[in-house]
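Appendix B. Raw example, untouched.
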Amino acid sequence: MKELRRAMTLLELEPRRVLTAIAAGVATLGSALLLAGLSAWLIVRAWEMPPVLDLTVAVVAVRALGISRGLFRYIERLATHETALRGTTSARSQLYERLAFGDPAASVGFSRGDLLDRTGADVDALGDVVVRALVPISVAAVLSLAAVVTLGVIEPVAGMILACALLVAGVVAPWLSARAASEAESDGDAARTAFAEDAVTVLDHAAELRVAGRLSALTRRARSANSENVRATDRAAIPAAFADAAVPLAVGASVLGALLIGMTVFGSAPDTMSPTTLGILVLLPLSAFEATIPLAGAAHTLTRARLAAARITDLLDRADRPVQHGTEQPRGPGRLRAEGLRSGWPGTAVIDPIDLDLPPGGRIAIVGGSGRGKTTLLMTLAGLLAPRDGVITLDDTDLVDIDPDALRRRVVFFAEDAHLFDTSILENVRVARGAIHAEEARAALTKVGLGEWLDALPDGVHTVLEAGARAVSAGQRRRLLLARALLSPAQILLLDEPTEHLDDVDAADLQRQLLDRDSLLVEPERTVVVVTHRLPDDTSADAVVRVSANPVVATVNGASPCR
């Protein structure tokens, strides 16, 4: 529970709002409790056939309590959901901020599906604690105590029976529910993560996977992971069934016990208990258990939230790992050098040492098959990963000594799977620079080959991509991401597979433009490093680094800046 308490602080819950939600919930079920008692009195009293005027106040009160119950329920829902939504917004804002300004390896070290789960569903699980656990548990505690005290005043033994029954419904049943949830979550967590990762891959790259002949295999793997998750849920169904059965059993035991005790007292000493009191004694427990009904779900929610909190705090711990941040502000033409650079993720193999000397305006291509470390090399050059060995300098200043914000303004890595947001095309390219105007965005998009596509859209650059990356084809997505890179203020562009998913002719043409200073696609003074699987033979690149088991550097057009 330590992780859950820590993660819940991200919600920044305001006590005033939480207490308002609890008070509205207490008023809702309090109205139900009073309604049950008053209805019991009214039914029995009416059976005695008193003058009608004796029942008028009770009839009006019943109507008022029936109306107030619905009114207070509406207020409670508004207050609870507002508190939860404010909390999840705060949690995500803090999470994104700490990921943005923390250790860069924290976010890039996770698969896309896992990262989406931790920043999406797991944060929602924390918000569910407010709606389905915190408020219901507090309301149930207050109402259960009130019901037990009220019944105990009427008949102490009946109050004790109700207290025991409420413990079964409010403690034993939630414990069984929590056990079921824990089994389902622990057994199905890996399966859900695998399913999310494969599903995202299939949704984003279905066309390419079909062409490569991998779509069916990946779909089967996703289906298998989902089936395993379902089996884990089924295995947890037995304790969940006992939890569901515990509540009605407790209600029946309480009502039956109150009825037997009341009839015994009424039969042996009718002067000590009136018929109306007997009716209240029997019907009041029925309403008292209404507060315990959500507790099994609350236990399930707390279990899910505990596991989600562990994943969130793990992500935060990774982001908050001590990272040596420099304060230097590099000044110079923008010369990036690497000496004896060995890059790689912790615990994985590293590529052989590479020496690079990237002068301002340099055009470099890094070529190699999948899994050879090309992307890892780019991320290391951008300062997102620490070198496993060697030194990287920018204008003769070690990257570790440079202020991170200053480094991001000079050297930027553009990932091949960068996110497209569910907003306008203009706002998507403004991710690189917030002050971009519509005309500037259109010019950049036209340069990368999206001019005709923009002309066909109803609102041009203001057209909203209603499904994010799924609103465009894979090739359009790559061109849009490339336009975002071109509009960034960075002096050194590190582009990861910018022409992937384009047809061979378009991909080759775009690569030639990126690696040619005279093409004007990229300003001549900016440095461009392109990672690709396939490179045309007739590019104007200054050098080509071929990454294999042992990196080989092929010199193009004279002296190579790489060794």
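End of appendix B.
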